[in-house]
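for the record, two folds in this file. i put them one after another cuz i was lazy. first one right below, seq on top, structure tokens after. the second one comes after a little note so u can tell where it starts
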Amino acid sequence: MKSDKNSRGALLQRYLSLLEISRDLSSVLDLDVLLHRIVNAAAAVTGSTAASILLYDESKHELYFQASTNLDTPLMKGLIVPVEGSIAGAIVTQREPLIVQNTREDPRHFAGIGKSTQFETESLLGVPLLAKDKVVGVLEALNKREVDFTDDDQTLLLALGSQAAIAIENARLFQQSDLIAEMVHEIRTPLASINTATHLLLHKNLDGQQRSRMAETIQRETQRLSELATTFLDLARLESGRNQFKIEPVEIPAVLDDARQVMSARMEEQRLALVWLVEEAVPIVQGDTDKLKQVALNLISNAIKYNSKNGSITIGCGHDKEKVYFYVEDTGRGMLPEHIDSLFEKFYRIPGSETVAEGTGLGLSICKKIVEAHGGSIEVKSTLGKGTRFTVKLPRGPIPE
């Protein structure tokens, strides 16, 4: 009898804890923060070793790994879990919770994530995340401590999942509205230029030279809109976690050499000298070659755009006991310290820089997200009138767990 009272008391305490958690979730609008709070709550209320969230992309009919209590490596975000041939997929398809006490004996168990994260799932409780009859994803509690998963665990996780699904949708809407508002604000200027140029082209009194200038304006602003749309989509994918990283051994000197070759014609056009200080014997890093090349290209492109006449660009690479680093340095106009803090904000451009070169104001924000997803950092040092150096530092060897 006393044991039953203790059991009921413990269950009541878990429900009270869940109530507090639900209140907390409703106030969080940062999607990454929200997802980590959900998985931590799922592990706590079910007494599990770990918990994870997989989000569902209905248009592609795919599940992608998004957050876990036992893994803080953003590179794992976006890894695809097949809907057909996985326990999570069965939960999405059936829209019902599922308890698997021994995953080794279940043919639906997908071991791909476990191999990537070095985490072995022995038992699993999963519930669908449903919002307005729409499947948002799957919330999983993994490896129940000491005993098997129970019906009470399932009821608690279902209750948490119900609140979590609504919170995720709210955070997504907030994130999308924020990005869309910024996007709309940024496209107004090129659209206004195109509209004005088009209106003037229709004027009969324009001579051939004037018409040519108007056509060039339309072409330039259309290209600007295209670049803005591309970078905006890159940023949206990175922020939503839908952007997949192809993890492989990466040789940073080779990445920098590829980027140098791509940008060499532009450097020659601007009559910029190249100083190459790239060490060849640099340890590999684990990451996405194309994404890291994207970072290098963006930094070199900025060094070209904001450099002084007949200046130089230094590209260097080296390593220490923990990090592999590379840097891009220009001899351009530099910047004030108060501008450095805002450099990586979306759409931020240093006042007056628009007269020097065009840009979307998204490139550095994307670079920062890519570098941080690799467990690294990006630093800036600048002296007004002398130049700027961007340094990227990445963990050497295997990705730390």
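(here's the note) second protein begins now
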Amino acid sequence: MSEYFRRVSEKISKLSDEQVKEFLDAVAGKNDMLDSIFESLSTGLIIVDEKWKLIFTNKAAERYLPFSIRPEESKSENVPLWQLIDDSSIENFLEDCFKNNRSNVSDEFTTATANGSVRFITISVLPLIKQQQMTGSIVTVNDITEKRSQEILLHRMENLAGLTNLAAGMAHEIKNPLGAISIHVQLIQKALKKSRENDGMLPDEKFLEKHLDVVNEEIDNLNRKVMDFLMAVRPVNAKLELLDIDRIIHDAAVFITPEFHNYHIMVHVRTCKNSVRLLIDEKLCKEVLINIAQNAIAAIQERYPDCGKDSANSKCQGMFEIITFLKDDKYIITISDNGIGMSEDTASHIFEPYFTTKANGTGLGMTMVYKIIKEFKGDIQVKSIQGEGTLFTITLPVPQTDRKLLTENTKERPEYDTGKIAQKMAKK
């Protein structure tokens, strides 16, 4: 069809007015058809010239991308595409594609919808070729929110399989309080029956109070266990977004460092040179780091009693380290301390519900840490040497679109580039 239009346009001077009108009507019809196709696409489509000035955009692209200047406004014609976008990560990606002449690349982003929910999109940049010359770029935008939501839902359903063991543990936990309540209620019943058969007088008040106090205490104990169980089984309400993990770790470190310094404990944090975006929840990620940090403080104080707030001239040797690096398409976080450590048996049970070595602990803190990391499709492992320290290794997957960056970073940061405590424990 395009060959037909080319041949006709070459002979247009020889055509009659009627033939010219028919030709223009055909061109307009074809143009209308193409417009209808572009506007009907579920894929967002943006065409830019060599300087990345906007030539065309369809409605889907306008729905998916947060434009600060609408494409239909006249001033949008005078600025490059990235300056029209109200999202720093998308803006940086598009600007980088222009400045470094990158094409046939794609990346994944999260944006907020009008109702506040999160939308996952993939942006791809392709070359616009005309007569074997690159005359601009084609930017496509695809909404993959439903796909990501299905993956998250499937992952959560898989986690429900673990509830069987958790429920069995809960049944064991409530058995003892119920047994104690039953015994003391039976003793009261026997005493009342005996008094009715004899003189009809009620048992001594102290006798009743003694057993009723035990009953009330066990009821409170039972209530606490039920509440803890509900906390353990509640779904992790993660709002997953593509976020700069190193920034989150830095912010968490700034938050926890003053408390370590109050106890005269040294804190060492080192993150990757080039940040990587991971599909995580910022609030829950910080919760993981803070929970592990709190345990580290207690472990260090137990090994070094001099690490205390009241030690003005403290000789505390405590140390806490957070180190991150990239390895084999994975983002690794090592969190280590040189505290009292744990036995191999204790370390093997640390993520189990209700398991705790603290007198007032619920045994759910590290369970939640484990659940959160699994929600991020990651893994967490612990290595501890009694009397020397503990090392947590968190492994998180890097999205497919960031793999190229991952390879570059891995070359700059070798796999052995971990903290002093981690290196020491790895040798053992």
